[in-house]
Amino acid sequence: MGNDPSSGHPSEQRPNSALTAASNSTAPQKTPARTDAWDPTAPPVPQATIPCPKCGAAVREVARFCQRCHMTMRFECPSCHNQQRTGVKCEKCGINFVKYIGAVVAAKQAEADIIQSKIDRRSAFLKNIFAIPFTGGLSLFKQLFSATNRKS
């Protein structure tokens, strides 16, 4: 029944004498040493290595580059961010890295061209405004009428 056989009555329980002595003592108690704390004097944990395909040097499995020949050891897919050892085609989503990057760069270049043309038009407009005292406003009228003709 979980009762102490030495006790006289089943409902009467005897407290553990070691626990009672520890709780009644006035001496400071030590906390047990943490085992998950980092110990700077401990030897390093050996890490798994793989051979470099180019020079054959032992490279840690988590390394991005070979320390000897600087070959890329891990590639990240630009689309799905999958980590893999080869860099031509993604093992997860199947896209070709070079074609994907080329398409992204072409799209960014088109956006950059549009932004640059807007900046050029605005800077030309400001130049013409500042040149009104010298040109009499002719260059400003030219720009405004050519811009309206371009839009239609």
Explain this structure:
The protein has 152 residues and is mostly helical. Among the domains are: 49 residues, no CATH class; 39 residues, no CATH class. The protein is 39% helix and 7% strand. It has 4 helices and 4 strands; from the N terminus they run H-E-E-E-E-H-H-H. It has a two-stranded antiparallel ribbon with strand order 1-2. A two-stranded antiparallel ribbon has the order 3-4. The N and C termini lie far apart (97 Å).
What does the average pLDDT come to?
A: 77
What form results from the Cα inertia axes? elongated
**SSE topology string:** HEEEEHHH
- Based on helices, strands and strand pairing, what is the structural class? mainly alpha
Low-pLDDT sequence parts: none
Question: How big is the Rg?
Answer: 38 Å
End-to-end separation: 97 Å
Order of neighbouring strands in the sheet with most strands: 1-2
Question: DSSP helix count?
Answer: 4
| Strand segment count | 4
Strand content: 5-15%
| Largest sheet report | 2 strands, antiparallel
> Which bin fits the share of residues in helices?
25-40%
Outline of this structure?
The protein has 152 residues and is mostly helical. Helices cover 39% and strands 7% of the residues.
Keywords:
single chain; 152 residues; mainly alpha; two-stranded antiparallel ribbon; two-stranded antiparallel sheet; 39% helix
What layout of secondary structure does this protein have?
Layout: H1 17-24, E1 49-51, E2 58-60, E3 75-76, E4 83-84, H2 97-130, H3 132-135, H4 138-151
Antiparallel strand pairs: 1-2, 3-4
